[in-house]
Design brief:
About 30% of the residues lie in helices and about 35% in strands. The protein is α+β, with helices and mostly antiparallel strands. A hairpin with a 2-residue loop joins strand 7 (about 170) and strand 8. Helix 2 (about 35-55) crosses helix 4 (about 95-115) and helix 3 (about 85-95) packs across helix 4 (about 95-115).
């Protein structure tokens, strides 16, 4: 045992001495059709959060911008990246190859973020032209710690639903809301699965009570229709767009969400049980909502002052 222990310590010492634990790469874009001040504003607000989710190996980020004519700008981002044991070995053996591979991987991950800034962003490095939307379309999601809330909320005058065939129902100036909220553990795509371990985000789904309007102007069934998803911090909802998870993008709908719903989920420890759900939620019938809210099962439920 002593021999094995000494051998391990020697190997560990050699690893620390000869293999890098950190590496630095930089990526440049010569032309982004957005002004330098707007670019810096977006970078300050969103880049670190984006990298926390999509590039967790990044330990430090710095960037430089340059103003160009016609309200355009150039961008250089410098990354400090933590290497795994295997990556350290590969970097030690094939430094040039590994640096090219890592730069390409980081560049591909950043493309959706930059394309949202400008559809004409032209990177200085070559990029893979494989269609991003195709392989990033989710098939389903794995969730845990699910809770349900039903309540009525005062609606703004500009509140609308996502479908013209839905008539929003009002009750004394208020609308009936139903929220499903949970911790997101996995997003399953066609070729890979994104997993959230220590930072499983709290995600909510908003449903509004509506009545169907048929093509002949007659009325149909009443149910709760899906409007979109939201995160704990509504300023981070843009991340749902990158994951193709239908974010809420209407301020009037976001204003309906009470903050105590988020707090109630954060106060409860995560449950071990998980379940897979569809990525394309559509409706909740009145009967299903009543059953979920009154259920004594494992899933937590609540009714926030909903009238009888």
């Amino acid at each position: 045992m002593k021999f094995l222990s000494k051998t391990f310590k020697v190997l560990q010492s050699l690893y620390k001495s000869y293999f890098l634990h950190l590496t630095h790469i930089n990526i440049e874009w010569n032309h982004i059709s957005i002004s330098e001040s707007q670019l810096n504003l977006v970078l300050n607000q969103n880049l670190v959060t984006y990298c926390d989710f999509f590039l967790p190996e990044v330990t430090k980020i710095d960037w430089k911008t340059k103003s160009l004519p016609l309200l355009n700008s150039a961008l250089r981002i410098d990354f400090e990246i933590q290497l795994t044991l295997v990556e350290s070995f590969l970097y030690f053996c094939f430094p040039d190859w590994f640096e090219r591979k890592k730069r390409k991987s980081v560049h591909q991950t950043l493309l959706p973020f930059l394309n949202d800034l400008s559809q004409t962003a032209v990177p200085t490095k070559s990029s893979n032209k494989f269609p991003i939307v195709f392989w990033k379309k989710p098939k389903n999601i794995v969730i845990e710690s699910t809770e349900y809330f039903q309540f009525r909320a005062k609606a703004r005058g500009d509140l609308t639903t996502n479908h013209s065939s839905h008539l929003l129902l009002y009750f004394d100036g208020k609308v009936d809301c139903f929220i499903k909220i949970y911790r997101l553990r996995h997003i399953k795509y066609l070729f890979h699965t994104k997993t959230f371990l220590d930072q499983a985000p709290i995600v909510g789904e908003l449903y509004l009570k509506v009545r169907d309007i048929h093509n002949d102007k007659t009325f149909g069934n009443v149910y709760y229709a899906f409007q979109g998803r939201f995160l704990e911090n509504q300023n981070d909802n843009f991340l749902l767009g990158y994951w193709n998870l239908h974010p809420l993008d209407k301020d009037a709908q976001l204003d309906l969400i009470p903050q105590e719903i988020i707090r109630s989920v954060k106060e409860h420890p995560p449950q071990k049980s998980k379940n897979t759900t569809s990525i394309e939620p559509d409706i909740f019938s009145l009967e299903i909502v009543k059953k979920l809210i009154n259920s004594d099962g494992q899933e937590a439920t609540s009714s926030l002052g909903h009238p009888k």
